[in-house]
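Lab notebook, bench 4. The sequencing result for the construct came back, and we need a structural model before the next group meeting so we can plan mutations. Quick request posted to the team channel:

Model the 3D structure of this chain.
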Amino acid sequence: MQADDQTLPSFVLDWLGQNGYQVNRVKRLIGGYAATLYRLSVSARDAKTCSLIYKHLTADRRQELTLYDQVLYGRSDLIPRVLACFREADSAGILMVDEGPTLKAWCQTLSRAQRQRKLKDAVRWLADLHIRCEAWLPELVGRGLQSTYPVSSAVTWAGYAIVALQGLSADETCDFVSEAQVQEIVRMSDWFYERYPHWLAGRTTLTHGDAHHGNIVCTENAFLLIDWEATCVAVPQRDLAIFLQDVLDATVHEAVKRAYFEHLRAAGWETTSHAFAQSFEAVFFDNTLMMLGWEIQQYHKGYLTRVEIAEITRVKMSWLATSFAQLQDGTLE
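Done. Here's the predicted structure in token form:
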């Protein structure tokens, strides 16, 4: 084993040994993740080598353990194969099979046209997930799936995002966001979150809650989702809103959005109504603000360049203004 193997918790190493795995190599994955991630190369009893992922959870993000144990177990069409869930007095984690690269990593190797085709495939798979899981909701809620959208959590994340934007605007070296722009975001946010629950009504299904491209794994023949911490029953537009956060190219963005709506509509969902459109704009505004705050944090930690965060901020502040204008024009008051 390499020296950095010792950073793995002893209970993980014990489990691997007891189950016939020899650890060949461990590498900590770096990239601004909420949890601490390790990729393990291991040999099984039959001497075959395989790759595993160990996810070490923070104390405030352990809902995923319960979801794997009680809600999502056996759903190999949704999640990577989970080998073990660990619950210790002061530590917790998940050991799973490394099923392949993320959609984010995959798309970095593709041309613009290839990337658009791959994203359309992924978003249609996401729509299929929503279609298939609708009928499964009563059983899932019975197992412990949260049945209400976490609006209070959304408000908290919006507050974090505004603080992050204020920090950028106060930075004398920042020339891509001004104090006046941040004040406008505050005004929009105050108006929006008082009304947000009105737009969350409609046909619901199982939603992942954080379906950005770094949480979608590309297998040989399909896709899988990781990091189910924020999952709940909600309108499916919620996941589409998160998925689109990683698509800054306006043409590709609209093509992918349209592909999702068309796929859902072909299965009998109403996607052309005013109410459906408003619900999408609402969750899009909410998740755009949340993700903007998260990405500013990643910039300060060194995971995004100044050029990248400037472009992200420019595009997403434009999205916020557009969604807000559409919601304000069609308020449900």
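The longest strand covers residues 22-29.
Will bring this to the meeting.
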